[in-house]
User: Fold these one by one.
Assistant:
Number 1:
Amino acid sequence: MSLLTVEHLTIRFGGLVAVDDVSFAAEDGRITAIIGPNGAGKTTVFNCLTGFYKPDVGRMCLNRDGKEFLLERMDGFRIAGQAGVARTFQNIRLFPRMTVLENLLVAQHNTLHRASFHTLAGLLGLSRYRDAEKAAVARATEWLERVGLRRAADDEAGSLPYGDQRRLEIARAMCTNPRLLCLDEPAAGLNPKESADLAALIRDIKAREKIAVLLIEHDMSVVMEISDHIVVLDHGAKIAEGNPAQIRANPAVIAAYLGTDEEDAA
Amino acid sequence: MEYFLQQLINGLTLGAIYGLIAIGYTMVYGIVGMINFAHGEIYMIGAFVSLVAFTILGTFAFASPVLAILIVLIAAIIFTSVYGWTVERIAYRPLRGSFRLAPLISAIGVSIFLQNYVHLLQGAKMKPLQPIVTGGFVMTGDGSFPVRITYLQIGIIVATVVLMAGFTLLIHKTKLGRAQRACEQDRKMAALLGVNVDRTISITFVMGAALAAVAGLIFTLYYGAVDFFIGFLAGLKAFTAAVLGGIGSLPGAMLGGLLIGLIEAFWSAHFPIAYKDVAVFGILVVVLIFRPTGLLGRPDVEKV
Amino acid sequence: MPFPQALREALMAAFVALMLAIPLIGFRLADTMQGLAIETRFDWVAWGVSAVFVGRLVLGLLRGRGRPLGLAIKMPALPPNASTMFALVLGVFALVLPFTPLGDRYTVELAITVLIYVMLGWGLNIVVGLAGLLDLGYVAFYAVGAYSYALFAINFGWSFWLCLPIAGVLAAMFGVMLGFPVLRLRGDYLAIVTLGFGEMIRVILLNWKEFSGGSAGLTSIPRPSFFGFPFTANPEPGQTAFHELFGLEFSPLQRIIFLYYLIFALALLTNFFTLRMRKLPIGRAWEALREDEIACRALGINPTNVKLSAFALGAMFGGFAGAFFATRQGFISPESFNFIESAVILAIVVLGGMGSQLGVVIAAAFLILIPELLRDFSQYRMIMFGFAMVLIMLWRPQGLVAHREPSIRLGAKA
């Protein structure tokens, strides 16, 4: 059984059908890319998965360690906290005035908050909380090293260069200990070298954490290089699905990206 | 039924005043995203200017009330607008682009300043005005409870409707209105496209002040007494009206104003009058719980 | 700026000043037997307009082009530990103040007032400064605290130390009651609802005479005792007064000094609590919420709970301060809990620099001392106060202390 199964997902905004009867699945230890032209509904799918929008029709079932979570019925923060779905945003959303390390600790809020016995143990300075905090800092440090930001740990997140902010956001998402990581255009605005590093990072996450990665990306070199499975959306509908080689050869995909003769004629 | 009708008329009159002030709040909020806390004081200044102008005309023994009101209206609009413009120029414009609460605190400061400024210059006592427009007629008269509507009330409601219609036209049909709506959506882009943002915002403040001046004049005529403190509560109610109707929406502000006027009128008629403000805010809370963006506010789709 | 341009701008400013001055300064409404009469004060107008003209001209000539007011004074950048040092000095000063030559009755009373506002500022700082929730009705919680202490002490004779936690808990409960329905509203909607709530509480206190004494308020609220030893010259038989306990001469100053240390301790408690909370998950979640609520939700943080905790804790400290206020004054009425109070407390937080504990102290001292220094010109007090609020905001929009100290550091070792 797949980790995430999306069936017949449909979202309308007024008269506009942003996502039209889309079904796909995401597996543990695999990178699934969602691609498509601008306005195809990719980010809307993400917003649905992470609870910011409620779908009009459809089912999103996340199967985690034998427990089923129906994402369409959960509040956004529960999806992240209980079902283990983490995400990044197209227009980076860090906590700009907090430090890099603090950003990563906020990501571990639920664990730490429980360990602080809803603040009480923390206020009293009990060892139980101190240990938990130490572990959280260790986890944060580990991720900082993996994304190469160890030295910036005490800098304000908002002061980091753009590429670093992108990697920090991924590290922050990973600090929530997710089962499904949703990356919304992580390579946008990066130079080729940074893109290559990013691809390596995502592959590293897949290999070492064995979690499922959902990826929205326009940079086809990244997508084709790292994806195991690709879902193509156009005008809200799924037009193709398959591995990179299949997608590259699919006439419908080529038509969607380059336009068809009929459309030119119309 | 007659009683109901009478309260309806009273409530509509009161609501017209709130609505006119609320438009100022809602326009400013729409365009610069700040709560112009000093707007209630601008309205108070409008009322004072009207009173001063009436008294001056009175010393010349002016005969025609209609002409007198017209002159006072123009004077009130002009002088009050200068206050609205100056406040924006001095206290808000330098803070544009700094963080969200800075202009709010500045506005609270302006509000305290203006209140005490008028207090110092004109004294603390309530200033009475002789009734200028008198008379009215009985709408239904079965003798037991005549429903009276005064000429003044008719004038107020008509003037408000005309102003409202004029404003809607202004916002939707003129170049100025287009510039305002553009600034509302995206100030930077508007500036790039050649809209003079500073001027557009100034004009918005002036327009809000002008409407507040009209409201001040109406208040002076209707209640016949003005003091330096009337701005606070009226401002609060008008802002509540703007939020109730959906802040940023002109018809919403008017609707909110009318609703609050009606609630006050009906509450005062049936329940302890002292608690009418509690009723107003209570209803605001209830409405916001069910419609978080107000009655006519655009539903709030989160940009993720 | 070349002279012609400066002249043009000065003329413009003078014209605006003239328009502002004519209706309200130029004419004065005077009450006479025959109703309103008009007096003129055109000489005032002339003076005012000339002053604006000359001032603008001089400013224009002195400065190049730039901001409308000459407010570009820069604060020197302070070394990072300067604020800690400064806070320490302030703390020691506050600790010994009553025993320095400065510590006369008037100064200590004034210092108590400042400390009340410092505490209120610190309480509201949790809500506005850390969690970023705009609360315009904070005074409501202050009122709840004050009235709970007063009512319990008057009706049941409960002691201050018993009433203090009750007042805090009740205020926090009011915070939750108000917060629960409205905290999902966004920024400015929350502002108006809290403002309305503050007014509602005041109106109810004003009109529910059987409960709160109405506009007359509550009088003869028990004054505090030194843990059971009253501050009186002639204790009732069987009681030991404070001065007898320590073998001192009786002096009315003793109670004031006790009150001073009481509020000092309460304020410090608020401060240390907040500083501690900032380093805990909930405190970091408050700040994260202020920075970006959507990102918080994506990280699994329940925004409502986090907001509610900030709201309730802020309210609790407001309640503590209220209880202290009631016992200090011995008399409370709804007049003490009007919107201006909320505005002043909010101004303290924002002027201080959102989230800065030290900033709150400086801003509170500023805002309370300005009107106090002007007490000989009492009629100009509030107008100067409003003016100062605008000026400080224009001068430092980000607040007096804009520096944010991280809640945790990893250290720079690579």
Note: Residues 68-72 of chain C have pLDDT under 50 and may be disordered.
Number 2:
Amino acid sequence: MITWLTIIIAGVLTYATRLSFIIFYGKIKMPAIVEQTLKFVPPAVMTAIFFPELLLDNGQLYISPGNARLLSGMLAILVAWRTKNVTYTIVIGMLALWIFQLLIN
Amino acid sequence: MQVNKSLPAVNLPRNEFLSGVKAVLPLMIGVIPFGMIYGILAISAGLPPSTAQAMSAIIFAGSSQFISAQLFALNVPAIINILTVGVVNLRHGLYSASIAPYVQKLPNHWKWVLAYLLTDEAYAVTINHYQRGDNSRNKHWFYLGSGLTLWTTWQISTAAGIFLGTSIPASWSLDFTLALTFIAIVVPALKDRASTGAAVSAGVAAVILFNLPLKLGLLAASLIGIMVGLAIERRS
């Protein structure tokens, strides 16, 4: 029961967050600075999510040739930059991770 | 076939919808394994299959579902679990603000549906489509197409993970597809110094602030990145 309640409240909270600006836009005047700010949202948020995945191991900084996730992540960044292709980036990044993990262990 | 020359074909709702589906499709290579991992994780955290699947429909936000399932396993108080999901999903408020100007003329029932479908991936392809120069008036159909594709894929892949349970070994590291998906979205979009500065500073800040409670480091790092981007743009 408490599990369901937790999920439902968390879901309502998430939905309210998603709906917030969509429903109130125009009813609240947004300063120009906010509008300029919004274009930096995707690069900032998504990089803040994936950097720790590459650079941390159990919450500790792990910069080393033994860090397979860091090596494959850097390769994936290179592939994404050169090809701009989502499929290549994910497939090559995943294959690289498996190869590096095999080599390192 | 009769073609109305004053309107480009892409303007039709059906075509917009299909373009949305097509735009988000490559991202499914990352979403499917991630959804399966969530299903596996939720089961090993002790959630019943129905509850684990319901979380995908009710919360519908991958990384927060991961964390929430782990918190269920740790038996933390419900309020902590709810707050953590809320904080991890605060970034959707930023997405909401960013997409709001483009959907403001739609009737409310569209807004309610589109808000439910506002995920990282659907947002990324849709905002890109909105910012493109052409003035198609049916771009919300593109949003619907990408959002529904993502929703369907997410439900099916989490169900597959729940069904497979613990039969996929952790050594496959399928959770890494989340990082790869975001790399594939972000890197090609870094077209100037300001956005690159925003990305790099947010990433570094997220690493430094990672151990803040309630995953607040993610939000703080995002705000730092946004401010750095703004500062670089002002100077040039």
Note: Chain B touches chain A through 91 residues (CB under 8 Å).
Number 3:
Amino acid sequence: MSPSAKSVTENLVAELRRGVLVLAILTQLEEEYYGYALREKLAQLGLAVPEGTLYPLLRRLETQGLLKSRWQLGEGRPRRYYQTSKEGRQTLGELSKEWIFLEKALNRIRQAD
Amino acid sequence: MDLIDRYVNEVSAALPRKLRKDVSKELRSTLEETVESRQHRNPTEDPEDVAVAVLKDFGPPGELASSYQPEAKYLVGPSLFPAFRATVRVCILVLAGLIFLGLFTGLGNGPLPAKRLLLGVVESFDNFLTASLILIGLVVVVFAVIERASGESRVSALGWDPQTLPSKDDPNRINRFGMTLKLAALMLLFYLANFESHRLVGSFLTDGDKSGWVPFLGPGFRDSLNLLNLVLVLDITLGIWVLRKGQWQLLTRWLDLGTTLLFAYFLFRVAFGPSPVEIDPQWMMQNGWSAEAAARYVGLTREIISPMLAIALKLGFLGTCIGALVQLKQVLVGRP
């Protein structure tokens, strides 16, 4: 594969992963996590998220009302904990349906080939 | 942890003020935790190297900061950029032409020593640079205004109805590129006529050891400036309105005809009234020119430049009247 084709593929893979990331975050954050722990959890489950991607995305999802957050300022390091909001759970339901639909459609397309 | 401090400071500086404190706090906490965790996994690794590796994973500060605000904010957006680029090019060319013409009008008045010729070229170049910078800045402001003023016409995908698409030969269809260029030209003309006319309308003149830029603005120009401003403001307002609507309507066609007629009246007044270009002999003498030189150049302007300009203005008046008739036909019949 030529370097430019490799770069195109890498970009497409990154786009694909970004699309899935929101679904993964909303699902995982049904339980409360702070950013670093969430990243570790997702990596442990097989979805490695680039450092510079996760934290801005968490902020955006919070701004959109899909996540809620709180600071925990007890002993040790201050941490911001995130959790899927009520609105976020509704969106998660819709996204999950869409995901299942896309997966089935893609499988049918592959089988048709 | 000095590197982390420096990184957080850089990211923070590139963030909107309202996000800075909160994002910095979270980012610092996350970075420290990530570094600690990696050090824990590789205790033999140099802490500085670990911090560098972690920060590389987070990416350049500017890039990280921009991902906190994904909506691009354009001063001049992609849809207007081709017109913006074309306007800048035309402005620079016209400006260069005007200043070149001004220089050679002056040079045509007899023999000129090399020193003063060089002085004239340097002064014209200085005028060109100053006016270019002002113009480019102004074009950016003009397009930023158009970008915001015409933004409403970009309907959302939900409200968009394909049935409203104009047919290829629909007379009410607007040429966005052309209209944007026209709007930019009108705004620039407004600025130049009101604030920079002395720099553009004039010539580099010489008399013995004395040489310099002399503005040509006569009473005809000052008397008609208010009328020109009225025409320009009406035309600009109408242009923005049409851009926002996305197509011509009967009312905007009539208003367009009205502004054309008003412009024709302006041309008529300037062409048949006192000359818009005239050298003020008092101004010349106050600026170190001799009375003879002032009289000579005033005469030259009256005998050559003013009559030529009057012919050009009369032709412009005639062309505008023909344009108004074409517009009238368009309004009444619906076709150009």
Note: The beta strands of chain B are 202-207, 210-215.
Number 4:
Amino acid sequence: MNCKKAGVFISASVDGELSLIEEQEFLLHLSECKECSLEFEEAKRTKMIIREKIIKFKAPQALISSIMQLTSFSTKEHEDTLLYE
Amino acid sequence: MDKPDPTHHTKNREKKESLSREERQKQLEFQHEAVVHLNTLYNYALHLTMNPSDAEDLVQETYLKAYRFFNSFERGTNCKAWLFKILKNNYINRFRKNSKEPGKVDYDLIKDFYHSIKDTRTDTSETDTDYFHSLLHEEVYQALHSLPEEFREVIQLCDIEGFTYEEIANMVESPIGTVRSRLYRGRKLLREQLEGYAKKYGFNTDNI
């Protein structure tokens, strides 16, 4: 494996998306190439940074209420019908 | 008004009750499978539109559609991925096909939000030399948003939402190999951006 091919493998390996054979091929290259090993460590950190630093916004209460209403509308209608009867 | 026929009335009520029971079951399942992803769906919509009211509309539409077509959801598969795909399609239909522009991008809102978060640069005593830890939320966010959409999208779906390559490939309607290489190239671009910030703070990134 050359370093160019290893680049894509680094990215996929960080995500645990290499096949068993690819992973072995990749690890073999890492053991021989210091540059790619460093690159691999860096890639892991970059992924971590994104996970940690990108804020997840929460849905506003009004939206939660309206979605809940959407899925309980018929139930409520059913209850109303029963009440009316 | 005629007095209602009591037999008819009972029959009618029975029919209603059984229909409702079915409907009720669907609702329970829908809440259990789909509604639990509301926050993450809204977050994704907000990142797509960068406008809270557009994001709310998108999520509303998505859930309406998802509920209507809930029977076609393949049980046992990832419901979150299914919802994301519906949302993405809605987004394209709304803002791309009709060449309608999304509402005004609310950069200020996002900026304010990120500013309201404690500056993590002050409490990183043991990792002073680590430029990654010096990055602000806002900077990582900006770096991500500076990427072309095709790259940003896969990074977001993979790193933030935790989807597998197969799920992402299905969502963006491209082969897995494409997802793989987009992630690789996108991350490379993102790193360059982040290193730009690091240089700004005087960190030496030559060895990285």
Note: Residues 3-84 of chain A form one domain.
